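Reply to dn_fold:

You asked what the input looked like. This is it:
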Amino acid sequence: MKINKKLAKKTAKKFHFLAVFLFFSFHLRNHYVKYKKRKIFRQNELLRKCQMAYVVEKQSILKENLIFLIFLKFFRKNKGNSVLMSK
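and this is what came back:
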């Protein structure tokens, strides 16, 4: 069986190109997927930090409001005759 060398070379070049193309396409896709995962992770971290800051801020506001309400209750209960008012 006679092998056509030109055809064999052409076919080898096509397969080589295909192999290189597939390798780089998968390689780049892998990098892209890792990049997207990192980006989503960073966004989630930022969102989590913002939510935590919001919760802490809300807790501090609630604590201040509670202290203020207790303070008002103390004054209302004593109708101005508290130790602070007598000085």
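The CA atoms of residues 20 and 51 lie 46 Å apart.
Hope that clears it up.
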